[in-house]
Amino acid sequence: MRSDHKSLLLHTEIRWLPRGQVLTRLAERHEEVAIFLEDNSDFAKYLRDEEFVLRLTYLADIFSKLNDLNLYLQGTEGISIFAIHEKIRGFMKKLVLWKNCINKRNYDRFETFEIFVMENKAKVDDGIIIEISEHLNKLNESFEFYFHKVMNTIQQKRWIMNPFQPDVTTGISTKAGEELIDLSEDSSLKMTFNTGIWCLS
């Protein structure tokens, strides 16, 4: 596999890198690392095993995507809870999409994996496809487990972003609900909202 890097950084120099980046670097330089380790570690034989490297490149790609999501959630200035909710929900939908693509042997959203397969004419056995598919499914289930309640709560508060949407479950008091109805039926306010001036006023 071709790589853009000219030197091998030791652990003490790369320990600050996010996990996804470490795996990507290892996947890109697995041949060089194998040479480096061949006289000192049994790990070298794994880096020369095609199935192991296929798993490694997949993990590099999925951890890279998780790292991107994590960086976003750590705090873009001015980000709202609704934007975070949408980002997580979007990522969960992508997991389903990626699973369907993998099952069809479409690897284009897993760049490191795809490059290794193409450059080495690697054979991707059904077992690898099943493992990746199951892993993506379990990831989705984990997201659902950890974020289900908070996402439902946030969904009930979406009237804050758009008080004019119909049939909103708000979870607010009856009095506040009446006021929200009055607001949502105010055509002049609705026109202001639709023109984008709402957030500026």
Show the helix and strand layout.
Elements: H1 11-14, H2 19-28, H3 30-37, H4 43-47, H5 50-73, H6 81-103, H7 111-120, H8 126-156, H9 174-184, H10 187-194
Helix pairs in contact: 2-5, 5-7, 6-8
Q: What does this entry look like structurally?
A:
The longest helix has 31 residues, at 126-156. Helix 2 (19-28) runs antiparallel to helix 5 (50-73), helix 5 (50-73) runs antiparallel to helix 7 and helix 6 runs antiparallel to helix 8. Helices cover 67% and strands 0% of the residues. The chain is mainly alpha-helical and 201 residues long. The mean pLDDT is 80. It has helices at residues 11-14, 19-28, 30-37, 43-47, 50-73, 81-103, 111-120, 126-156, 174-184, 187-194. This is Zinc finger BED domain-containing protein 5-like.
Question: Brief overview, please?
Answer:
With 201 residues, the protein is mainly α. Helices cover 67% and strands 0% of the residues.
Secondary structure tally, helices: 10
Main beta sheet strand tally, sense and closure? none
As a percent range, the share of helical residues equals 55-70%
* Radius of gyration over all CA atoms, rounded: 24 Å
Query: What is the rounded distance between the termini?
Result: 55 Å
Strand content: under 5%
Helix and strand composition category = mainly alpha
Q: Mean pLDDT, as a whole number? A: 80
Low-confidence stretches: none
Instruction: Give helix and strand order, one letter per element, not per position.
Output: HHHHHHHHHH
Find the count of extended strands (DSSP E, 2+ residues). Answer: 0
Shape: elongated
Protein name: Zinc finger BED domain-containing protein 5-like
Organism: Octopus vulgaris (Common octopus)
